[in-house]
Write a structure and sequence with these properties.
single chain, mainly alpha, 5 helices, 82% helix
Length: 97
């Protein structure tokens, strides 16, 4: 793997881990687990097979960056949904409760 492939998505790790930890802090442990499993399993393993067929050896090299990008997108979607859900619950809670 060349240096370019290694650093392609490394700058996004901070965002990935902040979103994952924020979900855990919000009490969305299941969403956080799904995100962590997706990066190395749910997305990465199928990406290996699909990209190998489509791009050959180059596809194997790019499977991890693709899994990272898709996992970050998944984390963002789950974070936004959880945030909206918690915001709605907060506004619906009667005062004094």
């Amino acid at each position: 793997m060349s240096e370019r492939q290694r650093i392609t998505t490394s700058f996004m790790f901070g965002v990935f881990y902040v979103l994952t930890n924020a979900l855990q802090a919000m009490g969305a442990a299941t969403a956080s687990l799904v995100i962590n499993l997706s990066r190395q399993g749910i997305i990465f393993i199928p990406a290996l097979f699909i990209l190998k067929v489509v791009l050959g050896l180059t596809g194997l090299v790019w499977a991890q960056p693709l899994a990272d990008i898709l996992s970050i997108l998944l984390a963002a979607v789950l974070y936004i949904n959880t945030y909206k859900k918690l915001s709605t619950q907060k506004t619906e809670t009667p005062k004094g409760a």
